[in-house]
């Protein structure tokens, strides 16, 4: 099983290593940005000068809404928290939520798509209708509704709630892409050959269909991650995201910063906003870079028209009479 | 008495660009097509015959480099601007492809196809005359006039191919290039279509370049045949002669490996056709040739003429000399190890 | 016309003379009256209105035996049903009716689970080597998968050893070199060898090969066919060889069945089929094969037209519209009248065609298959004028078999009615050492012909 998993992704990895030109730079730039934020996320306790809700340090209260200075590199907010620390802790929140959401989406969407596409019939029709219904919903509204419902449950208003809300919004995409691909792979000769060998349906789905269908998933996952960050920020902006006491969140910070803007206080909104933009861009670059690398149609642009040398003296040909 | 060739290819090279080394699909091909004759261009997959066909028609993909000369009634088609090529395709050069369904517009009726072709190339014609000529061309292919206004999907595969041929011929071209016209068809329909193509020279006085991998078709329909291997022409001459007295070992072995109704014993050519990116040095067939000599990997063979005065054959093989160009000791048989099965196809 | 020796029967007994192969044993596979029907998905509007789009009888009453140690060829063009037959035998497509007995046990109608043990004994090689192997699995994994599927793999080393052994046997040596490769790294011939390796690793008794070499180059075909013959000898295999190429079938097969539109029209020992083909379709198939012999030219006496639409096959014998030797009882019907008219119009100059076409009404009236065809005249014209046109067409080509099928033409004021002789479904008859489904060899059919039409 592990060998086949490697096999299917090995071809993808090989293509990535062979990437050249624009797609390669897109990919590497995106990776660099995301890596940077991941490092921030992992090492937040070590990098951030203060906690995300910390208002005192060494007995001294932080000034409210003070401009960037040596003590507070990005300034402080109206609640006297350090903007820089909140940006760094916000990175941890964003990465955690998005990773959890993408993982959940994959775990739910891909198997459903596989089963639905391969088995077909009533199950498929039901799932497709459900999927299309979810897809038709305005995504932010859907996220808000789910977040609201879950926040009143045992999950509270934390990271898991936000992740689940985002998952529900994005599962349909994985389901649809995987299902459509499965429907075409299902008709391939090698799948029929597997049936002729006597393979059970479970075997066919996991060994013959799955690894031929997952090539598009990394692209979708990274582009979804980009979108998820925006959705998370939007939830936080509207107040349905993570409770401020539980974690720092960029969207929430931006919403708090709106009032500051009219007073000429720019640092409370700029830095969280910039962080959102950068991380989203990073994921998008990875997604687009991967897409260009894995999608052969676009690769033909890098074909160089060859130079044909003059035929040498040895290749003299006689004219036919 | 030799007539001026209506299509003349001289030292044509077509190389495809890839991300790595270029693929030398056609690497120095010369041939002539005389008025009213049928020339079969035959070879296995990967020998470059389709590329040669496309180069003649001018339909190569991007990333292909062409060098050499393709003269159609005196005009060199290589390097001609697209607009002029388009104007030539139709009245000067008829085309028949393998998959007719992909070449016929599913949204246009057959009538529309014909009217479009005729009005594009012979704008002076009035509608009644266009209709008459179209129906005549179709009737010649056995398509009843009652179906003139139907859509391509209402016809079967064989009938669509007949429509394609009628479309190609309605403009009275002097040269028709057919690229694997019957490969996708059943054997009886194929025989019907081949009968139609055979009659081309009587009914239309058009020269036909028939590109195919099926030697049986070539034997039954073509006047002359050119055998292609690894981007070069191995042998060319009158069909009768090439089939009964093949000069090139590849032709001979290929004929032996064909399974026909009279086959009593299987025979095949060991090894596999070479990569066109890095072909073998010297004669490209030498690794698989049972008659290879020492000179074969050392130097590319020179084309010579063999055969009688009436039935000339051109062949590129050191077995036929010229002796003057073979270095001493070059005629000794080539010693080599067993071809590893890993190279087997 | 050849006559069977007074015998006539359905698919019961095989001529004893066919078992001239030494060691030819009893039947491994017995197929009786097998039918496989597909229903078509209609157009959107049809589905919306709930109307049936039609069914296709891809396999329409096929019966034969596959005997131990032989190579039985099934030859047919597209639309003949040969591929559907293979899929039905393998259980990949459910049979609609009939029986498939493998060593006495009934296979038709079994569930996937019940079929599984039989899959070990009956394996398949498909046509397209480039699509038969899972692109995500290495050759070693693909070839070894059957062992894993059937629970025969007890350890990694054992699987590896058996895979290596079978790879060497099909000529992919050294095996280590190929085990780690992916299908994309191999050539067409090598892939087909790997597919053969995968098929034989379980030690099957029957191998169904669906056009195994038609997608390979000519110089490679001989290699793979030779390999298949070697494997048959070494492993005591029995082959069902499906192809459209009569030339390879002659070389490869002991007995041959010719299929047309879902039915077997002729079946017999290979030598008999080639030396003395009985069914007109077989005759034309043989004539149409291109031979690399420059003294031959393209055959001219080919059947007209192409394989008809399988949704509404011709009445009576399905080959009759194209058959050069069709006669009264072959099943003539209204659609043949339409074909005759259209073909005759193909030979007219445009002006004459226009004139005639104005007289004749809508030919669509003939599309409903019937023994009594009624062709209305166009507005302002009489049935007599239409009848005159039809007579002109008859005079132009009186030898067309169509006219033998016409029993009577009656003229009405505004239409012409053509009544055809009642058609019969052809039965399987014995002729020589072969079984043929053709009225030409059926004494009862010619008796009906001579009887006066009522």
Please write out the topology.
The complex is a heterotrimer of chains A (321), B (345) and C (454).
Chain A: H1 2-17, H2 21-42, H3 44-47, E1 56-57, E2 60-61, H4 83-119, H5 121-136, H6 139-151, H7 159-186, H8 189-197, H9 201-213, H10 217-238, H11 250-262, H12 267-294, H13 296-299
Antiparallel strand pairs in A: 1-2
Chain B: E1 7-16, E2 23-33, E3 38-42, H1 49-57, E4 64-72, E5 75-76, H2 82-88, E6 93-96, H3 100-103, H4 110-121, H5 127-140, H6 157-169, E7 175-179, H7 187-198, H8 200-204, E8 207-212, H9 215-221, E9 224-229, E10 232-238, H10 239-244, H11 249-257, E11 303-307, E12 312-316
Parallel strand pairs in B: 3-8, 3-9, 6-7, 7-8
Antiparallel strand pairs in B: 1-2, 1-4, 4-5, 9-10, 10-12, 11-12
Helix pairs in contact in B: 4-5, 5-6
Chain C: E1 27-39, H1 44-49, E2 55-67, E3 71-75, H2 82-90, E4 97-102, E5 105-106, H3 112-119, E6 122-125, H4 139-149, H5 156-169, H6 175-179, H7 188-200, E7 206-210, H8 218-235, E8 238-243, H9 246-252, E9 255-260, E10 263-269, H10 270-275, H11 280-288, H12 334-346, H13 350-359, E11 372-376, H14 383-396, H15 402-405, E12 406-411, E13 415-420, E14 428-431, E15 434-437, H16 443-450
Helix pairs in contact in C: 4-5, 4-7, 5-7, 7-8
Task: Give structural attributes.
heterotrimer; A: 321 residues; mainly alpha; MetI-like fold; two-stranded antiparallel ribbon; disordered C terminus; B: 345 residues; alpha/beta; Rossmann fold; 2 domains; 8-stranded mixed sheet; 4-stranded antiparallel sheet; 11 helices; 22% strand
């Amino acid at each position: 099983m592990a060998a086949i998993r490697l096999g299917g992704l090995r071809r993808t990895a090989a293509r990535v290593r062979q990437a050249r030109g624009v797609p390669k730079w897109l990919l590497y730039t995106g990776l660099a940005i995301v890596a940077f934020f991941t490092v921030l996320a992992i090492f937040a306790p070590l990098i951030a000068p203060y906690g995300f809700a910390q208002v005192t340090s060494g007995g001294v209260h932080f000034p409210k809404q003070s401009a960037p200075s040596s003590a507070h590199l990005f300034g402080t907010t109206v609640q006297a928290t350090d903007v820089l620390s909140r940006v760094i802790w916000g990175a941890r929140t964003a990465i955690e939520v998005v990773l959890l959401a993408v993982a959940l989406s994959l775990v739910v969407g891909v198997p459903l798509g596989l089963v639905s596409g391969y088995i077909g019939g009533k199950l498929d029709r039901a799932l497709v209708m459900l999927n299309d219904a979810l897809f038709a919903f305005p995504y932010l509204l859907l996220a808000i509704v789910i977040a609201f419902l879950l926040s009143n449950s045992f999950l509270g208003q934390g990271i898991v709630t936000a992740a689940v809300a985002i998952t529900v919004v994005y599962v349909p995409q994985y389901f649809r892409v995987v299902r459509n691909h499965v429907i075409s792979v299902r008709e391939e000769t090698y799948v029929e050959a597997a049936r002729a060998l006597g393979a059970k349906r479970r075997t066919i789905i996991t060994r013959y269909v799955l690894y031929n269908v997952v090539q598009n998933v990394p692209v979708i996952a990274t582009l979804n991650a980009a979108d998820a960050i925006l959705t998370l920020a939007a939830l936080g902006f509207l107040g349905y995201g993570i409770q401020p006491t539980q974690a720092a969140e960029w969207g929430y910070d931006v919403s708090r910063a709106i009032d500051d803007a009219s007073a000429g206080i720019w640092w409370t909104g700029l830095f969280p906003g910039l962080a959102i933009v950068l991380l989203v861009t990073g994921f998008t670059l990875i997604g687009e870079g991967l897409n260009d690398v894995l999608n052969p149609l676009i690769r033909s642009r890098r074909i160089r028209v060859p130079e044909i040398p003059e035929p040498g003296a040895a290749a003299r040909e006689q004219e036919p009479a | 008495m030799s007539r001026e060739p209506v299509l003349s290819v001289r030292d044509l090279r077509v190389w495809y660009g890839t991300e790595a080394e270029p693929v030398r699909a056609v690497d120095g091909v010369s041939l002539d097509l005389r008025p009213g004759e049928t020339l079969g261009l035959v070879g296995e997959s990967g020998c470059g015959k389709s590329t040669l066909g496309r180069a003649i028609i001018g339909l190569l993909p991007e990333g292909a480099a062409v060098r050499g000369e393709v003269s159609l009634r005196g005009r060199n088609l290589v390097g001609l601007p697209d607009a002029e090529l388009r104007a030539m395709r139709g009245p000067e050069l008829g085309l028949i492809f393998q998959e007719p369904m992909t070449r016929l517009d599913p949204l246009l009726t057959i009538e529309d196809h014909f009217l479009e072709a005729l009005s594009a190339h012979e704008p002076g014609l009035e509608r009644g005359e266009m209709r008459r000529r179209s129906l005549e061309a179709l009737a010649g292919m056995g398509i009843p006039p009652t179906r003139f206004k139907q859509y391509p999907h209402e016809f079967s595969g064989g009938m669509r191919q007949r429509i394609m041929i009628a479309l190609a011929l309605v403009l009275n071209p002097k040269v028709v290039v057919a690229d694997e016209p019957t490969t996708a068809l059943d054997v009886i329909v194929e025989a019907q279509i081949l009968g139609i193509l055979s009659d081309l020279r009587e009914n239309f006085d058009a020269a036909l370049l028939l590109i195919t991998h099926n030697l049986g078709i070539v034997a039954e329909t073509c006047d002359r045949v050119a055998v292609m291997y690894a981007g070069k022409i191995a042998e060319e001459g009158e069909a009768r002669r090439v089939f009964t007295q093949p000069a090139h070992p590849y032709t001979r072995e290929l004929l032996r490996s064909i399974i026909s109704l009279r086959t009593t014993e299987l025979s095949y050519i060991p090894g596999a056709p070479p990569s066109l990116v890095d072909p073998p040095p010297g004669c490209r067939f030498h690794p698989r040739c049972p008659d290879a000599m020492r000179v074969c990997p050392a130097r590319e063979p020179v084309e010579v003429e063999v055969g009688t005065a009436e039935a000339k054959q051109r062949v590129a093989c050191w077995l036929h000399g010229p002796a003057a160009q073979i270095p001493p000791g070059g005629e000794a048989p080539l010693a080599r190890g067993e071809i590893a099965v890993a190279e087997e196809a | 016309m050849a006559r069977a020796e007074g015998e006539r029967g359905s698919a019961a007994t095989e001529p004893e003379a066919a078992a001239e192969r030494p060691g030819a044993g009893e039947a491994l596979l017995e197929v009786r009256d097998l039918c496989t029907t597909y229903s078509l998905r209609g157009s959107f509007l049809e589905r919306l209105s709930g109307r049936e789009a039609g069914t296709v009888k891809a396999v329409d009453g096929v019966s034969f035996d596959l005997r131990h140690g032989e190579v039985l060829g099934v030859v047919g063009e597209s639309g003949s049903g040969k591929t559907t037959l293979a899929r039905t035998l393998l259980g990949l497509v459910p049979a609609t009716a009939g029986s498939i007995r493998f060593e006495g046990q009934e296979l038709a109608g079994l569930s996937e689970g019940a079929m599984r043990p039989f899959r070990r004994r009956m394996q398949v090689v498909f046509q397209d080597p480039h699509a038969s192997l899972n692109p995500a699995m290495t050759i070693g994994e693909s070839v070894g998968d059957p062992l894993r599927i059937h629970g025969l793999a007890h350890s990694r080393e054992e699987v590896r050893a058996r895979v290596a052994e079978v790879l060497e046997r099909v000529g992919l040596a050294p095996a280590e070199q190929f085990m780690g490769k992916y299908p994309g790294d191999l050539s067409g011939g090598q892939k087909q060898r790997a597919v053969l390796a995968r098929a034989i690793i379980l030690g099957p008794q029957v191998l169904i090969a669906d056009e195994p070499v038609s997608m390979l180059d000519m110089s490679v075909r001989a290699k793979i066919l030779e390999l298949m013959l070697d494997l048959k000898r070494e492993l005591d295999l029995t082959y069902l060889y499906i192809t459209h190429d009569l030339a390879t079938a002659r070389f490869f097969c002991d007995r041959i069945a010719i299929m047309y539109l879902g039915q077997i029209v002729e079946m017999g020992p290979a030598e008999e089929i080639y030396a003395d083909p009985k069914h007109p379709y077989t005759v034309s198939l043989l004539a149409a094969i291109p031979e690399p012999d420059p003294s031959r030219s393209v055959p001219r006496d080919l059947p007209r037209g192409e394989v008809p639409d399988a949704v509404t096959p011709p009445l009576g014998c399905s080959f009759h519209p194209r058959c050069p030797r069709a006669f009264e009882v072959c099943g003539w019907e209204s659609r043949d009248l339409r074909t005759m008219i259209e073909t005759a119009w193909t030979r007219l100059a445009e002006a004459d065609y226009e004139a005639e076409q104005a007289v004749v009404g809508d030919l669509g009236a003939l599309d409903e298959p019937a023994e009594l065809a009624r062709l209305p005249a166009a507005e302002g014209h009489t049935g007599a004028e239409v009848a005159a046109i039809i007579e002109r067409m008859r005079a132009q080509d009186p030898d067309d078999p169509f006219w033998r099928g016409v029993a009577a033409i009656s003229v009405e004021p505004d239409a012409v009615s053509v009544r055809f002789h009642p058609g019969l479904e052809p039965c399987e008859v014995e002729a020589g050492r072969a079984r043929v489904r053709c009225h030409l060899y059926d004494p009862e059919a010619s008796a009906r012909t001579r009887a006066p039409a009522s």
